[in-house]
Amino acid sequence: MAQMQIAVLGSTGSIGVQTLDIISEYPELFKAHTLVAGRNVDRLIEQSIKYRPSLAIISDDRLYMRLKEALEPYGIATASGRKAVAEAMQQTSVDTAVIATVGYSGLEPTLKAIESDKRIALANKETLVVAGELVNRKLAQSQSRIVPVDSEHSAIYQCLVGEQPQSVRRLIITASGGPFRTKGIDELKTVTVNDALSHPNWDMGAKITIDSATMINKAFEIIEARWLFDISPEKIKAVVHPQSIVHSMVEFIDGSVKAQLGLPDMHLPIRYALGDATRLATTRPGLSLADYSRLEFFEPDVEKFPMINLSYHALERGGNVACVINAANEIAVAAFLAGRISFLDIRRVVEKSLEKMPYIPSPAYDDYVNTNFETRQYAESII
Ligand SMILES: NC(=O)C1=CN([C@@H]2O[C@H](COP(=O)(O)OP(=O)(O)OC[C@H]3O[C@@H](n4cnc5c(N)ncnc54)[C@H](OP(=O)(O)O)[C@@H]3O)[C@@H](O)[C@H]2O)C=CC1
Ligand SMILES: CC(=O)[C@@H](O)[C@H](O)COP(=O)(O)O
Ligand SMILES: [Mn+2]
C-alpha cells in the first residue's frame, strides 16, 4: 500500500493531536501532508517541525506572519484564512482529509473534499447536523467516501460490516449521561463551567464536553447517524451507558444485537478510519472486561435533558432547522464557557432561536451560510 497523504484539519485539537499520534504509529502507512489549525499558532509550529508536512495553514489571518517566519527555514509552505483551508482540500497530492475542526467550520472544507473525491475521516459531526442532506447529495455525485470517527458511529460502522441494510431493525447509540447524570433537575441551575467540563469518561475539547453535559451531543449524534447510515430517525435510539465501554450497537431483524466495545479512547476509531476500515495492529492498552464488574444501560432522562429530543424534531421538520439548532448552540456554549450565561440558559438560547429563525424547507448551500450567520447574530442578542 502506498503511503497515504493526509490533511489534518484541527491538528491542534483533541482529535487532531490523537490523529497525529496514529500517523506516528504507522509511519510506513501514513504521512501528515497538510496541517490546519484555528488560532494555536505555537502548537501548529511545533507540530510542523515534528511532522514536516508540505503545508501548514492557520485559519486566523492575523497569525500568518508568525507561522511563515517560523516555518520558512524548514521549507514548509504556509497559508492562512478560510479560503486557503478550502483550497487545501483540492490538492491532488492529498488522499484523505481528517475533518476535526469544531462546529460549523467543518462544513465548507468537507464539501470541497467531497468535490475533490477525497476519502474523509469525519470527526466533525456538526457538518452532518447542519447539512447532512446536502452532504449526501454531493457524495452521490462524487467518488468521495466518509468513514466516521465519532466513537458511536465508528462502532455502528464496524457492526454493519458484512450486513445488509434491510437486515437492520435499529441503531442503538450509547450515551455516558455526562457529568450531571445523577444530579436532580434543580441542581442543574447552579452547576459551574468546571463541573460541566468534568466528563466522567472522555477527555475531549471544551465544546463537545459541554454538549455531552447538556446531552445535545446525543441529539447531534442521532442526526449524524441518520445521514451517515441513510436510516430513518424512528430506527435510531439513544441509551444511557455510564461506563462508555459499549460504544454503540445495531439490532437486526432476527433479534440479534451486535455491539462494539473498547476503552473510552479515541485512538481506536481514528485508527480504524485512517486504516479505511481495516484493522491495524497496536500495542496501546486494550480492554480488559474483568476490570468492569458492571455494564449498565438506562433509558435517557428526557425531562432533565430535553435537548436529546431536538434530534427527532429537527429531522421531522428538515430544512434549515438543525442548522439553526447548531448555530444557536455554538453561541450559547461559547457564552457559557466565558461565564456569560448559566448552564440552563444554553437550552433557552437554542429554543428561542428555533422559535425566531425563519424556516427554509429546501436549503441550498447559501441558505445554510445565511442561516448560520443570522442565527448566531440572533442568539448573541439574547445572551
Ligand atoms: N474530542 C473528541 O474525543 C471527539 C470529538 N468529536 C468531534 O470532533 C470535532 C473536534 O473536536 P475536538 O478535537 O474535541 O475539539 P478541540 O476544541 O479540541 O479542537 C478543535 C480544533 O479545531 C480547530 N479550529 C477551530 N475552529 C477552526 C477554524 N475556523 N478553522 C480551522 N481550524 C479550526 C482548533 O484550532 P486551534 O486550537 O488552533 O484554535 C483545534 O485544532 C468536533 O466536531 C467534535 O464534536 C467527535 C467525537 C469525539
Ligand atoms: C468520544 C465521543 O464520541 C463523544 O461524542 C462521546 O460520546 C461524548 O460522550 P457522551 O456519550 O457523554 O455524549
Ligand atoms: Mn460521540
TrEMBL record:
Residues 6-132 form the 1-deoxy-D-xylulose 5-phosphate reductoisomerase N-terminal domain. Residues 261-378 form the DXP reductoisomerase C-terminal domain. It catalyses: 2-C-methyl-D-erythritol 4-phosphate + NADP(+) = 1-deoxy-D-xylulose 5-phosphate + NADPH + H(+). 1-deoxy-D-xylulose 5-phosphate binds at K125, S151, E152, S176, H199, S212, N217, K218, E221. InterPro entries: DXP_reductoisomerase (IPR003821), DXP_reductoisomerase_C (IPR013644), DXP_reductoisomerase_N (IPR013512), DXPR_C (IPR026877), DXPR_C_sf (IPR036169), NAD(P)-bd_dom_sf (IPR036291). One of its GO terms (molecular function) is 1-deoxy-D-xylulose-5-phosphate reductoisomerase activity. NADPH binds at T12, G13, S14, I15, G38, R39, N40, N124, E126, G205. The keyword Manganese applies. Residues 146-229 form the 1-deoxy-D-xylulose 5-phosphate reductoisomerase C-terminal domain. Pathway: Isoprenoid biosynthesis; isopentenyl diphosphate biosynthesis via DXP pathway; isopentenyl diphosphate from 1-deoxy-D-xylulose 5-phosphate: step 1/6. Mn(2+) binds at D150, E152, E221. It comes from the Bacteria. Keywords: Isoprene biosynthesis, Magnesium, Manganese, Metal-binding, NADP, Oxidoreductase. Its EC number is 1.1.1.267. Transmembrane segments: none annotated. It is an enzyme of class 1 (oxidoreductase). This is 1-deoxy-D-xylulose 5-phosphate reductoisomerase. It comes from Heminiphilus faecis. The gene is dxr.
